[in-house]
TrEMBL record:
A divalent metal cation binds at residues 33, 35, 66, 175. HAMAP family: RPE. The lineage of its organism: Bacteria, Pseudomonadati, Bacteroidota, Cytophagia, Cytophagales. The active site is at 35 (proton acceptor), 175 (proton donor). This is Ribulose-phosphate 3-epimerase. The keyword Metal-binding applies. Binds 1 divalent metal cation per subunit. The gene is rpe. Substrate binds at residues 8, 66, 142-145, 175-177. It holds the Pfam family Ribul_P_3_epim. Its EC number is 5.1.3.1.
Amino acid sequence: MTPIIAPSILAADFANLQRDIEMINGSEADWFHVDVMDGVFVPNISFGFPVVEAIRRHAQKPLDVHLMIVQPERYVDEFARKGATHITVHYEACTHLHRVLTQIREAGCQAGVALNMQTPVNVLADLVDAFDQVLIMTINPGFGGQQLLPLSIPKVSKLRQLLRGAGSSALIGVDGGMGLANTPTLLDAGADYVVAGTSVFGADDPQDAIRQLKNRHQPMVA
Ligand SMILES: O=C(CO)[C@H](O)[C@H](O)COP(=O)(O)O
């Protein structure tokens, strides 16, 4: 299967943001991935509504907003109004996850849930009808440019089994340290979409990096 590629805007050059957005518009990327960090849930602060709104004005593809913030229910509706098409919240940040996922859908967006490294996939077993995508963090979130943690790979396979067993068509994403070398492994494990920051924006030719990620996968022979 050809993966969905979602370049992470966190790694863009913010002095030339419009140029980088146009680069993604003209590439084989499928979504824009936007990381919102509050300095509490993760040890970093990225950006908020004005930047998301500015990206939306120029982006010609779906806007996948990843909220690495506490109490995301306070901000979901406003991110939807700013133009998010997909909103992902962290399992670890939600006291009432089902309620927040319902809120995201009621705001007209695809509902996503992200799992940090320490969170087993089976916490989602009773909620499979409530989300459209699951983002497996393949690093400890907060910063781009980290190395993928190999312990995250079997989590993707386990989640694929769980979703298949439940008859769910929710997408599985992977985020952190993703590049040409490890993308086939994660796709074989069951990932549908790949969030990539450094390997795209740090490349000499970002559009070519996206094209290679998109077309890298050789399906395993059964
Ligand atoms: O969620 C994130 C950080 O918490 C970023 O999306 C992720 O790190 C992507 O950047 P890179 O590809 O450079 O690892």
